[in-house]
Amino acid sequence: MYAKNAWQQYSPEDMKALEAFAQDYRKFLDGGKTERECVKEAVAEAEAKGFKSLDDVIRSGETVKPGDRIYCAWMKKSFMAFIVGTEPMENGMNILGAHIDSPRMDIKQNPMYEDESIAYLDTHYYGGIKKYQWVALPLAMHGVVAKKDGTCLEVAIGEDPADPIFYISDLLIHLSADQMQKSAREVIEGEALNVIIGSMPLKDEEKEPVKKAVLQLLKDKYGMEEEDFLSAELEIVPAGASREVGFDRSLIAGYGHDDRVCAYPSLRAIEDYEGVPARTLCAILTDKEEIGSVGATGMNSNFFENVIAELLHAAGIDSNLAVRRMLRNSYMLSSDVSAGFDPNFASVFEKKNAAFLGKGICFNKFTGRGGKSGSNDANAEYVAQVRRIMDDNGVDFQTAELGRVDAGGGGTIAYMCAKYGMNVIDAGIAVLSMHAPWELISKADLWEGYKCYLAFLKDAGK
Questions:
Q1: By CB distance 3.0 to 4.6 Å, which of 77, 198, 209, 390 could disulfide with 287?
Q2: Three-state SS sequence of the chain
Q3: Which domains does the chain have, with CATH numbers?
Q4: pLDDT of residue 411
């Protein structure tokens, strides 16, 4: 019943393939610190592997046929890739579904102000974070600024060694007597997450000279006015590239493992699939999971269902019932991370049902909190099918719950897809320090995740 350590089974050839995959993942992770950047990378990779845009297929009136590779970039924040199978589409799909948004701080729409010769930007944190973790460390700014003339400015400042970084100050220890008595939730409050962006005043200005100096820099370099913040999506994230951890370099520390450590193997699995499948294959990289999958780009919207209807239409099938059947008859892995067992905090885990770094892909039959609230809870027959696929393909896997029953909890997109009647189970990578600015994963688990997703695409539904 106890999973083996995957590292002990690898041949020199396995290690070479694992390492190459890990380095490819790090490039994706470092280049995709926002959902828009992830979609941009996914589109580039998909097109390089022969996928064509569904929008182009619709415009041309082309008929979709088995073997066709199709992608859709939804509002530049969610992404879907398909390989059309030989079986009727109504027989369902094999689906991998991950999310590409991560906890961060978003710049408010009216953010800029000056206080005692320091210029700041106000933020509103996104997703579940420990706010005290985000102070006194190098920060970068990523995102877009949409201007009234229709142009859209892409922003990425703080990653190049020549770039400036941004910073949120903390109270010095010498004056922290009262602060140190507060609970962790209150040590840093949300309205205190104010990003320092400058301190040099504009000459001959008396009122807000530092703010005006920064605005002048923004205008000169980017053609940006203060009002352009109204239509901007700017995210504050940790600055710097991911790093290998340990003398043996077996681990990767980086921002956004949750859930890009599942998104990238899902994307690669469908891109690397060879031949024409029997069942139609699908990979979804979705947005807004960290705040409940809301909005037009989250899985609670109908964007996925609408894209399926368009895909069927392009195959010559115009039937709402066909859409329903295609979704109902699908099999899915909700590819999301799991809480890795941390010996430093062992009391919140139930060890027999915990995920361990280095022991392979992790299946969570259910997530949720307390009495399984908000959970999908996969049925036993489907779990048995997934076990068979893993064993037949030599994939190292483990099963887990998200900590002790009453310790807390969390959810994924699984239950939103299960509403169609399809079989869904959570399958992801164990993470230490989840939702921290820098999270930790094992290269072995990353590799087993890729193997799992490829095997699932190939064998689910057989």
A1: 77
A2: CCCCCHHHHCCHHHHHHHHHHHHHHHHHHHHCCCHHHHHHHHHHHHHHCCCEEHHHHHHHCCCCCCCCEEEEEECCCEEEEEECCCCCHHHCEEEEEEECCCCEEEEEEEEEEEECCEEEEEEEEECCCCHHHHCCCCEEEEEEEECCCCCEEEEEECCCCCCCCEECCCCCHHHCCCHHHCCHHHHCCHHHCCEEEECCCCCCCCCCHHHHHHHHHHHHHHCCCHHHHHHEEEEEEECCCCEEECCCCCEEEECCHHHHHHHHHHHHHHHHCCCCCCCEEEEEEECCHHHCCCCCCCCCCCHHHHHHHHHHHHCCCCCHHHHHHHHHCCEEEECCCEEECCHHHHHHCCHHHCECCCCCEEEECCCEECCCECCCCCCHHHHHHHHHHHHHCCCCEEECCCCCCCCCEECCCHHHHHCCCCEEEEEECEEECCCCCCEEEEHHHHHHHHHHHHHHHHHCCC
A3: 6-102+255-459 (3.40.630.10), 104-238 (2.30.250.10)
A4: 82
